[in-house]
């Protein structure tokens, strides 16, 4: 027995040495030059991503966000990095779609007004982060073919840079309402030429069953998932419950973050693609492995490479109604620009300049101002701007500003962008929402240093107050509650209780004559009789026809509750139709204690927004220029080919250096996969909103 064991071990050792020697020979090495193939069943049953062959308005309005180090200017073109998807991911399986195409993009976006694009907040939520990208139109095969150019050579006229982020929300970044929203609106440095903004859903939940996406998966040239023959027989909608987002079966990848999701029937923008399952899985075969596209529902429950276990519960789409209020606000401001009025500037009380700003952690400077009276008795305050001249021993950006109004509302202006600044913040929607119609009183400008070891100095400061000129002034719309008080709040019931508010009848003449009334500001006041007010932890306010619906987290509120003081809450309802029934839903989650509503008041201020609505509903139609129609058709019997990317033709163009493959993406966001992350990273969104439990 012992001899047999010794002999067996000897034979095993000799065989092991032989195998090692054989494996050392090149033709026996395990290589991934020819990785195992797999059946390409992509994401949802089959891969519907296609290179577009026709130049359509939605395609023309779609952009790719490209880091500025991923392109170079050559004459009248921006040449995007030609590195292919396979070069970024060298372990891809041999039949992965689009593996030989260039992949310079980071995120996607869409044009929603002549100078504003929408994208995901986790791509760029600050102006500094936004300025790290080029905003590139025309990175697609259809426009490249129509213009007879290579797909990664973009005319400079189609390349834009960011001026500012005018609004954003990521998870619970602006409220404590657990909405799990994810969007950012970026104003470009100039208006977009020869491209029309898309039609944006301004209110209501979508009732569509079918959608299509245009975007840049993995940073590739734009792909379209629209069906060319017929819609799916099966609905693409998987969950339409939540206020802030819905989930649908969509074929998307990293780089699709911010991609426009369109109604497949009407072409209306329903929202932005922001989150989803893992994109890549390991495929094993013959002792080798390679990366393939994840498939749903086949891969449900399996662990993906980039985002954990696949749930196959659908891709998450932030609803367009999350930012439609801000879009309406910007459109109204375009009609009633603050530049048409001359502000009244006020100096601080009893301050002598220069004033030293103490180092970080040693306090802040508070400058006090008394607001002026309106030039005319019928005028009201519209917005406020800051004029400031300062210096800093290290960087002016280390000085941060915050303005507080007479009512106690405040706006954080963030780092000082330069010095001097003139009317800083006057055009920001959150400033209008916080300070519009403010009474006279004391204003306080706080200036503090945000980093240690260096100090700053203020040489001068003034506040600029802009008043309305009497045109389009907001009018109070009287509202009455249908429920007789007190109203009992059912104990521990998911349905809760509904309070209904309606405009008075007949309408005031000033409102009845408006062509398209829209909400400018609102406030809801509730008084409760409840021994444990923290039990009533949920309140939802829905505008008429549920065009805008917002669920408020109220756990920390007492028996007297005021809603509408938060800037995000104000802007959310901006522009919505005020005429009809407003619904307030209150839910008490905990048993044993029953409460009631003893008083409820809803106050709305409205103005005529006809011109703004028309401009958003009917954006100018841009005629396709010469050579910008459909891509030329291939001869019968031959496949249509996209123009070659730069560098694919041997020796045709100088090759750009190929960076190392990026690290795998973390978190749920789709962006930042195909290229290294942008200069300023944004934190991951909070946990998604969950429905109230019965």
TrEMBL record:
Region Disordered, residue ranges: 614-694
Record bears the keyword Signal: yes
Sequence ranges assigned to domain Peptidase S1 in this UniProt record: 21-337
GO molecular function: serine-type endopeptidase activity
TM spans (from-to): none
Highest taxon above the source species: Eukaryota
Key words, A-Z: Hydrolase, Protease, Serine protease, Signal
Residues spanning the signal sequence: 1-24
Acidic residues composition-biased segments: 627-639
BP-aspect Gene Ontology terms: proteolysis
Ranges where the P/Homo B domain occurs: 341-474
PROSITE patterns named in the record: P_HOMO_B, TRYPSIN_DOM, V8_SER
PANTHER family: SERINE PROTEASE
Identification of the protein by name: Serine protease
Organism of this sequence: Chromera velia CCMP2878
Lineage, top ranks: Eukaryota, Sar, Alveolata, Colpodellida, Chromeraceae
